[in-house]
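Quick one: structure for this chain?
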Amino acid sequence: MKATIARFLRPARRGFDGFWRDRRGVAATEFAFIVPVMLLLFFGTVEFCSAVAVDRKVTLIARTLSDLTSQAGAPVNDTYIQNVFTAGIAIMQPYDLSPATATISQIYVDSNANATIQWSKAATFATGASQATLATSARNVGDNVTSVVPPALLIKQTYLILSEVGYQYVPTIGYVMAKTGINLGDVSYTRPRQLVCVIYNNQPVTPPASCPMT
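Got it. Here's what it folds into:
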């Protein structure tokens, strides 16, 4: 009886042994498990590197806006400010600047170390546009921004050019980052270089060509 059972099980045992020793599908199985991890690492790296590149360009745009404005050697108008904003389009290449908002403001720190907005202008950027579009700034003339300015820059009876750039970075794939994207932004402060202050459309003084120092 035992011999009969053994003869019956012998082929089945050889079949099971052959199944466990068969490695022909192992590579495909391992690849199927590894692919999601590889894709996660690949797309995650791509999205992270793109976000870092855009963030660095946002910082460069903020510095450029304040720097170009501070270099004005005469009263400026809308055309000058628009050209300054437009410089950001070239800096952001090859990325799209349309998700960005930008603002340039002049701040005066009075004899009591209170910082107030003297003038402010904003801009938007349309997809594919070669020029920025001027817009109304969220900062109004007379707004107190003492808490915004770093304490080291609150030097009495001096002027500052403040540039602010915000950017909504939306990943192309959204495999790792949220599809809604992340908010990037930076600010830059520069002191007027050619004049005591930068006069924009006869602001902040009447008559122009002089800057209040009280």
